[in-house]
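Chain A, query sequence.
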Amino acid sequence: MSVTSPAPKVFGFLPQEAVPGALLVFVAAIAMVVVNSPWGPAYQSVLATSFSIGPTGGGIEMKVAYWIKNALMALFFSS
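Chain A, predicted structure.
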């Protein structure tokens, strides 16, 4: 009979596998606070700003919100 060691803990109480979920909840809570604060219009303005990578006229141009969504999807599905 073998004894398995418990999963490593982060901050002494959070299992290592739960860190991505906890980070997602934390960032979502911060985003909700910012959107409902006086900084909300500035936050919305930043997300609606276009950003491009590559040569002018031939690069990839998307709003900041789409860049964030695409980056998060790539990170989520790569692990």
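The CA atoms of residues 51 and 67 lie 8 Å apart. Residues 19-35 form the longest helix (17 residues).
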